[in-house]
Each structure stands twice: as C-alpha cells, then as structure tokens.
Design goal:
Elements (H helix, E strand, L loop, with lengths): L2 E4 L9 E4 L17 H10 L12 H6 L6 E6 L8 H8 L1 H15 L4 E5 L2 H13 L6 E5 L9 H8 L23 E5 H18 L10 E8 L3 E8 L4 H5 L5 E3 L5 E3 L8 H6 L8 E3 L7 H15 L5 H18 L6 H10 L8 H15 L1 H8 L19
Parallel strand pairs: 2-8, 3-4, 3-6, 4-5, 7-11
Antiparallel strand pairs: 1-2, 7-8, 9-10, 9-11
Helix pairs in contact: 1-7, 3-4, 3-5, 4-5, 4-7, 10-11, 10-13, 11-12, 11-13, 13-14
The protein binds iron/sulfur cluster.
C-alpha cells in the first residue's frame, strides 16, 4: 500500500499521511460548482454519504429535511481529545471546508453560514479563506471554547445563542430549531469538505475510490505506541490491520467508542456498524504492552466523569462511581466489580445526551477486551505495570 506524506501548515499539527489517492488532502482545492438542493440530496444519497461527526447520520436525509433559508452550521469544535482530523482539515485545507459550507448555503439559499471552531489556528485559517473568497458578509467564524459535551450540536447551538452550552435533551433537532431559533443544517467539518468533493467530482468520480457500500475516502486519527499520533486519509475498505499493524486490542471511534480484539475489520461504517462498532470521530488507538490497560481505561473514565455537565443524576453520580471503582481496581485495591458491571448497565439511556452511553460503552468494551488483565486486578495487587498515560486527554494539544 503506497503512502504519501503531507506537510501540515501549522507547527503543532501531527504528521499527516495519505494511503492511495488523496482527495481531502490533495492540496489543490478543486473548483466547486454551484448545485441546487435536489442535486445535492441525490448526489449525497448516491454516495451513501454519512455525517463525519459521531452519529453518522445520512447526509441526504438531513439535507432533504431542511427548507429554503436554513442556516448552515459547521461544527468545528472537535472536542474528542483523541481526534485531530477536523483541525487538520481546517488548518491545511480551509478553502475546501469553506467551499463545502458555501455550496450547501447556495443550495439552501441560506442567509448565514456559521463556523463554530475551538482551535485558534483553524479560526485564523478559515477567516483567511473566507476573506479570499469575499464571503465575509454571510460567513461568521466563531471561536468557541466548550468542553467535550459542549461539542454536541445542541450544546453548540445553545452556546452560540448565549445560553449555557449544555445539551437540551434528545427531541429538539437543529433542522427544526437551531442557531437563533432558525432551522439549521448542522454537520461536522469533514462532512462539508466531502460535500465539496462530491460537487466537484460528481457522484461517479467521487465513487472511483472506496467501496460500493461506502464510496470515497475518510480521515483517521491514529495513535500507536511506535508512531505516536498521526492523521491518515484512507480509501474506505482499508483494513485496520494495515493501518496499525498490531494484534493488540484496538480502540475504535474515540472515548465514546469501543475496544475490540477483532483484527479483520475494514474501515467502512456500514460494515463496522453491522459488527456492533461505531466509527465515531474516526479515531483508532492501541496501547503499548508496557502500560497497565486497566489504569489507562480508569484514567479516561475519570476524565469522562469530569466532563459531565452536571444536569442529569445518573450521568453525574453513575460515571463518578464507575471511575472510582476503576481507579481502585487499577491501584490493585479491592473493588466492587459486580457493582461496577451493574452500573455500566444502568447509566446508558439515562441522560439528556449520549455522554453516559458513550462513556459506559468505552469502559465496558475495554474491560472485555482486556479481560485477562482485569481478572489479575480483580485478584488484587494489580498487574505490576505502570500507567503510562498513553491515551491523550483534554487541554491544549
Ligand atoms: S447526560 Fe451527562 S453530559 Fe449529558 S446533559 Fe446530562 S449530565 Fe450533561
């Protein structure tokens, strides 16, 4: 498999690679012709395009559900600590992201395009691209500073409208009431870049790489003990083994994702979903053999508990208790593992957002993937390995 290295435009950006044909990271931003809403809906449907945030919602269905004049919201908060892909796009190819947002705005006859971005370098790059295109009148690049849960789209909308940046609950869709109370087409940064490519290449050209089930390419944030953190553009259908080259358990999807011991998986959302695995924010990570996996899982669980925005009891108390049990286990202390398993089954579905569901999935799948290590800890005394803090957490990166 051939790889090419891209030189990131910003100093602190991790190394960026391309496997096969570069699309998102091709360097030159292709000319993006104007398309109407009907064309975009049909093209997104033909390409099987799924949103590139966490939920993987079909883009065609979302585009078809908004009416003329809807606001366009680009979610560039990238609040998943292990994810770098959106910042790579915003920093390296801001014009492609902006062209995708303007494409959708043209199709919907939108009055406003809002880009909500947490990273200062990305803000500057997008503002420069907007200025270059003379789009300043209807493009607003907003520097947001929400936490992990604040990147959830409803929380983001609340923050943009000067309300506390917390989720509302599951029933208010941005397509019905979004920024400023107006219907809003909201999606992740990469979704807009993919829409720009779809308009530029047409559905057939777009589908000339990837698989029939999921045409095109995707960005993956990869963390391995040997190579550290990198961002890789791959065609769909690429095997995870070729990307990370290990038989150790893999974390797929990030801190709301799942650990798996399966080694024969391909990067293709429909197939992963059929295997019970969400692609989430497009993160793949493995741990070094020299670290204590139970300690690593406990460390992230404690961080996830701290990211609860404190409005739903099962999330606030349940995640804290899970993190406490795991921390005790990791230290080799006696812990109530039956109670831990019970709590992991109780918190999903009990919050106003999917944070407890994702956190419980991360922990439960991790304990399953590292069952042997878990039983050593359950017998008391731990596994003797230090916790190397191999998985990145929040804060400046
Ligand atoms: S489930 Fe947790 S993170 Fe989500 S809104 Fe409730 S308290 Fe906040």
């Amino acid at each position: 498999m051939s790889t090419a290295t891209i030189t990131p435009s910003a100093q602190a950006t991790p190394p960026v690679y391309v496997v096969g044909t570069a699309r998102l990271l091709a360097g030159d931003t292709p000319a993006v012709p104007a398309r109407d809403q009907r064309w975009l809906v049909e093209a997104a449907r033909a390409a099987g395009l799924l949103g590139r945030g966490g939920a993987a919602f079909p883009v065609a269905a979302k585009l078809a559900s908004v009416g003329r004049g809807a606001t366009v919201l680009v979610n560039g908060s990238e609040s998943e600590p292990a994810s770098w892909k959106d910042r790579v796009l915003m920093r390296c190819v801001p014009g492609l992201v902006l062209d995708g947002a303007l494409l959708v705005a043209g199709a919907l006859h939108s009055r406003e395009v809002v880009l909500a971005v947490a990273d200062a370098s990305s803000v500057a790059a997008l503002q420069a691209a907007s200025h270059q295109r003379g789009a300043g009148g209807r493009v607003r690049v907003v520097h947001t500073e929400n936490g992990f849960v604040g990147g959830e789209v409803q929380a983001l909308v609340n923050g943009l409208d000067q309300r506390p940046a917390v989720p509302n609950g599951r029933r208010v869709l941005p397509t019905v009431r979004g920024v400023g109370g107006r219907p809003t087409f909201a999606s992740n940064v990469e979704t807009f870049a993919q829409l720009a490519l779809l308009a530029a290449h047409g559905p057939e050209g777009f589908a000339s790489v990837g698989t029939a089930a999921e045409p095109g390419t995707t960005l993956v944030s990869v963390h391995t003990p040997d190579h550290g953190t990198s961002v890789v553009e791959v065609p769909h259908g690429t095997t995870l083994a070729s990307l990370v080259g290990t038989s150790r358990p893999l974390l797929i999807g990030g801190y709301h994702g799942s650990w798996t011991a399966a080694t024969d998986l391909r990067i293709e959302r429909p197939a992963l979903r059929a295997a019970g695995i969400g692609w989430g924010a497009g993160v793949v990570a493995t741990l070094p053999e020299t670290t204590c996996p139970i300690g690593e899982i406990a460390r992230v669980a404690a961080w996830l508990a701290g990211e609860s925005v404190g409005q739903c009891g099962p999330c606030v108390f349940g995640l804290a208790a899970i993190a406490g049990d795991l921390t005790a286990l990791a230290r080799g202390q006696r812990a109530d593992t039956a109670g831990l398993r019970r709590r992991l089954g109780l918190v999903p579905g009990r919050g106003a957002c999917s944070h407890p569901d994702g956190a419980a999935r991360f922990v439960a799948s991790g304990l399953q993937a590292y069952a042997e290590d878990l039983s050593r800890h359950e017998r008391g005394g731990g596994c003797g390995r230090p916790v190397l803090s191999a998985l990145p957490l929040g804060g400046p990166r």
